[in-house]
Description:
Blueprint: H1 12-26, H2 37-48, H3 66-82, H4 86-90, E1 92-95, E2 98-101, H5 112-119, E3 129-133, H6 139-147, E4 152-157, H7 160-172, E5 179-183, E6 195-200, H8 207-211, H9 233-241, E7 246-255, H10 260-266, E8 273-274, E9 284-288, H11 289-292
Parallel strand pairs: 3-4, 3-6, 4-5, 6-7
Antiparallel strand pairs: 1-2, 7-9, 8-9
Keywords: Methyltransferase, Ribonucleoprotein, Ribosomal protein, S-adenosyl-L-methionine, Transferase
Enzyme class: transferase
Domain Methyltransferase small: 123-208
Amino acid sequence: MxxxxxxxxxxxxxxxxxxxxxxxxxxxxYGHGTTNxxxxxxxxxxxxxxxxxxxxxxxxxxxxxxxxxxxxxxLIEARVALRxxxxxxxxxxxxxxxxxxxxxxxxIPRSFIGDLLAGGALPIAKPRRxxxxxxxxxxxxxxxxxxxxxxxxxxxxxxxxxxxxxxRNVATHRLGDRITLHRGDLFRPLQGQRYDxxxxxxxxxxxxxxxxxxxxxxxxxxxALAAGEDGLDLVHRILVDAPKHLTKSGGLVCEIGRGRxxxxxxxxxxxxxxxxxxxxxxxxxxxxxxxxx
Length: 293
């Protein structure tokens, strides 16, 4: 497809339309907060100027400064030339309207668990102690702390870079008194600790999925995505150790992507409760401690 010619770019609306045309012509891949060229372009031009990202219509007639125009052109062209996800280019991502700093040290925030936390759809009312396994940028730990204002949260990751990023996000949201970060392999830094709620969005991409990743996803840390032949390497370990770290009435919420069939085949006696959202079905499960025990 022919590359769109660069029109006269005056207003933010001009840049928005130009970005949409460039992204469609380049046949980019999405999935890092947006699902199409229109939403991607809107997010990029609004976030680049630190405008509210919920609606672009009120800002279409805004005339950016020369420096802002140069920044917009650079970002739009980088998105196409590098196939870099927009949140990495802008160093910002949003979940449930909450802004997080992000860079290539961690997976770009996205999880159906965030929808469940914000919607109050978890099978537990008022957890006082919460654990976020494989916390990455800290986004779910922060959303959990916001959803349950009286809870204390521990968050664990193996990557020092991801934890440094999480530390920054925790500080930005002023939650350092309630969220404690730990470096280690799953439960290992948490000997003797028990929680009312464990949440985890671990690496779960299977070997076939890794082989077919679009270029955008290859910019993310491989260790945050790849999880063996069936995508369940870490999930198996979580299921084994979770009962030792749950309170009597506690439970585990875990996201597994497309791993439902192999998971249920591996554990035919476990009564998985699948927590569906508006955009997902059979990708997040709940198991209580009694189920696991």
